[in-house]
Amino acid sequence: MRDIVIIGAGTAGLTAAIYACRAGRDVLVLEASSYGGQIINTPDIENYPGIRSVSGYDFATGLYEQATGLGAEVRYEKVAGVEDRGDVKVVTTTQGAYEARAVIVATGAKNRPLGVAREQELVGRGVSYCATCDGMFFRGKDVAVVGGGNTAVGDALFLANIARKVYLVHRRDYFRGSPADVARLREADNVEFVVPAVVDELIGDQALEAIRVSDPASGTSRRIDVAGVFVAVGQIPDNAAFAGVVDIDERGYVVAGEDCVTRTPGVFVAGDCRTKQVRQLVTAAGDGAVAATAASAYIG
Ligand code: NAP
Question: What is the DSSP letter of 9?
Answer without folding.
Answer: -
